[in-house]
From TrEMBL:
It is an enzyme of class 5 (isomerase). Belongs to the KduI family. Gene3D superfamilies: Jelly Rolls, pectin degrading enzyme 5-keto 4- deoxyuronate isomerase, domain 1. Its EC number is 5.3.1.17. Its cofactor is Zn(2+). SUPFAM superfamilies: RmlC-like cupins (SSF51182). It comes from Pedobacter frigoris. This is 4-deoxy-L-threo-5-hexosulose-uronate ketol-isomerase. Catalyzes the isomerization of 5-dehydro-4-deoxy-D-glucuronate to 3-deoxy-D-glycero-2,5-hexodiulosonate. It catalyses: 5-dehydro-4-deoxy-D-glucuronate = 3-deoxy-D-glycero-2,5-hexodiulosonate. CDD domains: cupin_KduI_C, cupin_KduI_N.
Length: 280
């Protein structure tokens, strides 16, 4: 087992305007999430958000505590959200085992000292996508299935954005300090996500794209509404979205993505919408 940890500074809109393709990718794209028996963690200075992935294959993988956090253990001052995007696996939190099937979620509260990850079958490993944010109090560790999610259907085939939003770890489903996570599934024939686009100056987001068919890609749009940029993304990659940036995408096929948010409030509808025909 090994852990990789990377810290990324916050980037201002003025800096982003001057970046070339390589600069944008280095600062905002997280290109590797899953690797056998490895934990990959990236901390963004936007709201101290940690994004990562765990794929246990040959062993049980323990959530480590990077020195950078200066904490007694990883969740001493943090909360954790997990969504399994692989085959069946188990997350054990302070001795209590939670079995997660594909697309099931788990919230783990602040103060949990031990977290470990195991796959049911090493030939078909689980893939635990994780997000973590600072936490000011402790809420109960809770498993959420898609049946328990707050589900909203938006868009239409005519505008190629027909999608189902599964709100999994949000305040309409369970209590969290600031972390919110959910999953948006695009219908066949639809390719646009989060369109019309928006910003929310009180929260940042991270998008994790998956179920992108082999040979296909997603073009993720970011930047200020009047100064947009794009990043081409592949299956099982993440992109950091600052609070000043739109976050939208269009694929060469339909796909699914997990959105995670953190910031000043838990109001899912707190969005500053951007008119489609005013984007630049």
């Amino acid at each position: 087992m090994q852990t990789t940890f990377e810290s990324r500074y916050a980037i201002s809109p003025n800096e982003a305007k001057s970046m070339d393709t390589d600069g944008l990718r280095k600062n905002f794209l997280i290109n590797k999430i899953f690797e056998a028996d490895t934990i990959h963690l990236v901390l963004s200075h936007f709201d101290r958000y940690i994004t990562g992935g765990v794929m246990p294959v040959n062993e049980t993988v323990q959530l480590s505590n990077p020195d950078y956090l200066k904490a007694g253990y990883f969740l001493e001052r943090r909360e954790l959200g997990i969504i399994n995007v692989g085959d069946k696996g188990t997350v054990t939190a302070d001795g209590i085992a939670y079995e997660l099937e594909y697309k099931e979620a788990l919230y783990i509260g602040r103060g949990t000292k031990s977290v470990s990850f195991t796959s049911a079958d090493q030939n078909s490993p689980a893939k635990f996508y994780i997000n973590s944010t600072p936490a000011h109090c402790t809420y109960p560790t809770t498993k959420i299935s898609k049946k328990e999610a707050d589900i909203v259907e938006l868009g239409s085939p005519e505008t190629a954005n027909h999608r189902v939003i599964n709100k999994l770890l949000v305040n309409s489903v369970l209590s969290t300090c600031q972390l919110q996570m959910g999953m948006t599934e695009l219908k066949t024939g639809s390719v646009w996500n989060t369109m019309p686009a928006h910003t929310h100056d009180r929260r940042m987001e991270v998008y994790f794209y998956f179920e992108v068919p082999e040979g296909q890609s997603v073009c993720h749009f970011m930047g200020e509404p009047q100064e947009t940029r794009h990043i081409w993304m592949q299956n099982e990659q993440c992109v950091i979205s600052p609070n000043w940036s739109i976050h939208s995408g269009s694929g060469t096929s339909n796909y699914t993505f997990i959105w995670g948010m953190a910031g000043e409030n838990l109001d899912y509808g707190d969005m500053d919408h951007c008119a489609i025909n005013e984007l630049r």
